[in-house]
Predict the structure.
Amino acid sequence: LVVESFKHIKKAIITGAGGFLGSHISERLCQAGVEVLGVDNFSTGQAKNVKRISTQFSNYKFVEADVTQDW
C-alpha cells in the first residue's frame, strides 16, 4: 500500500489488528499520520504484532475486544 494514498484519511479503525494483514495495514496508516484504533480479540492474531506497532507509533491505540460482542 502506498503511503500517499492515505493522505485524505484522518482516522481509521482496523479490526483484526493483531493478524498479519491488520497489523501491516495499521502500520502503513500510522506511517501516513493516520490516527489508528486497532481492535482484536487474539483468537487468531498475535499480541506481538500489536506491541510492535504501539511502541513505534504514538498515533496507534489498541483495544482488546471481540467486535461481535458489545464493548
